[in-house]
Amino acid sequence: xxxxxxxxxxxxxxxxxxxxxxxxxxxxxxxxxxxxxxxxxxxxxxxxxxxxxxxxxxxxxxxxxxxxxxxxxxxxxxxxxxxxxxxxxxxxxxxxxxxxxxxxxxxxxxxxxxxxxxxxxxxxxxxxxxxxxxxxxxxxxxxxxxxxxxxxxxxxxxxxxxxxxxxxxxxxxxxxxxxxxxxxxxxxxxxxxxxxxxxxxxxxxxxxxxxxxxxxxxxxxxxxxxxxxxxxxxxxxxxxxxxxxxxxxxxxxxxxxxxxxxxxxxxxxxxxxxxxxxxxxxxxxxxxxxxxxxxxxxxxxxxxxxxxxxxxxxxxxxxxxxxxxxxxxxxxxxxxxxxxxxxxxxxxxxxxxxxxxxxxxxxxxxxxxxxxxxxxxxxxxxxxxxxxxxxxxxxxxxxxxxxxxxxxxxxxxxxxxxxxxxxxxxxxxxxxxxxxxxxxxxxxxx
Length: 446
Ligand SMILES: Cc1cc2nc3c(=O)[nH]c(=O)nc-3n(C[C@H](O)[C@H](O)[C@H](O)COP(=O)(O)OP(=O)(O)OC[C@H]3O[C@@H](n4cnc5c(N)ncnc54)[C@H](O)[C@@H]3O)c2cc1C
Fold this sequence. Notes:
Number of domains: 2
Radius of gyration: 22 Å
Order of helices and strands: EHEEHHEEHEEHEEEHEHHEEHEEHEEHHH
Bound molecules: flavin-adenine dinucleotide
C-alpha cells in the first residue's frame, strides 16, 4: 500500500497538515478544487486563503487561549504561524496579516517543498484505502458533502451551525440563578439538577423583548442561504413573530420553582445547560442568534444572574459543514468507521482560522507518525491543542455539539488557585505555563 499522504483541501488546516507531514519525512499530495471549482467566499486559487477578516486574533500567549495556540504552533514550526509572522501588520495585541502576500507565500512554500505536490481537482468520494486527511472546511463541496453524509448518516453532518452563546460557569450569579430540571425530571440527582435557571418578572421580560427587537443584527453573507430551519430560529426572529413566542418556547417558565423566592412564580425563565464534561462552560438553551457581538453581550447581560457573564463564545448562525466529531472521530482524528481517513480543520467542529490550522497541524503529525511507525503519546489535555482535540472528540456533549473556539473553559482547572474575576490573571498564567510544558514534552516524542 502506498505511503503517500493525501490531503483534500488546501485551506488553513490542509496547508498546515501537509507542511507538518512533509517536514516529518512523508510524501504528500494536496488535492485542492480551487480555482477550478469555486466557493462563494474564496476569491483566489491560493492555498491558505483567509476568507474574511485578516486577523488571527490575540497574540498574547500568557493570558489568552488563542495566543497560546499561536505559541504552540510556532513551537512546532507551524507553516501558518511562521508565515503570518513574516507578513504581520500593526494591530496592537492581535496578529493581523497582509492577506494576499500571506497566502501567496504559503502557496509558494508548499509548492517548493520537495515532498509536496499539489493536484488541482475536486475529490467527490471517500476512498477505500490509502492515507487520507479531509480538510475541506465549512464550504466543503456539495458532492463530497453527500459522500460524507452517506458514510456518517444524515444526522452526523450539519450544513449550518446554530450556535447559542456559551459562558463561563464561574461568572454566573448563583444568588439569582438555581439548578433544576423542568418538573424535576430525571433518575439521578445529577439529572434532576441538570439545568441552570435564570428567572424574569414581567417587566424584565418586556424590556428584554424590546432589546431583542431593536438590537443590531448581522446579515447572511452573500451566497449563503438564509433558509435556516424552524428548529433553530434565532431568538430575535422568534421575538419578531410575537412578543409571547419566547415565553412559550425556550423561555417557558413551567415546571420550575425558584428556591430564592419560592412564592413568586417567574414570568419567564432562561435555561442554561452544561456544555462540557468539566462543567466549566454553560450554553444558553435555544438562544442561537444573529445579533452582532456587541449587541449580544449587552442584551444577554439583561438576564438576571448573567449581569456579569463572561462569554467563552458568542452565538451565531452560519453556513458551515461540520461533523458530529464526538461520535464519529477517535482521539487521533480518525473516522471510526474508516480509520485510514482523518478529518481536520473546521469540518471537525472547531471554529476560526487559528483553531482550524491547529487541528491541521495535529492531523498532519498524527498521520505522518502512523505512516512512519512512530508511536506518539496522546496529545496532552493540558496543552491548548490537547484541550481542543479532547473537546471535539469526546469532551463535548455529542447531542448538542456545535463548533467551538479555543478558550480557557476547555482546560482542566489548576488546583489551589482563586476562582472568579480577581484570580483570573494568575489562573490564566498557570494554564499557559502548564500548557507550554505539556506541549513541549509531546513534541519531543516526534
Ligand atoms: C464566509 C466565511 C467567513 C469566515 N470568516 C472568518 C473570519 O473572519 N475569521 C476566522 O477566524 N474564521 C472565519 N471563517 C471560518 C473559516 O472558514 C475557517 O476558520 C477556516 O478557513 C477553516 O479552515 P479549513 O482549512 O478548515 O477550511 P478552508 O480554509 O475553507 O479550506 C478548505 C479548502 O478545501 C477546499 N475544498 C472544499 N471541498 C473540496 C473538495 N471536494 N475537493 C478538493 N478541495 C475541496 C476549499 O476550496 C478550501 O480551499 C469564515 C468562514 C466563512 C465560510
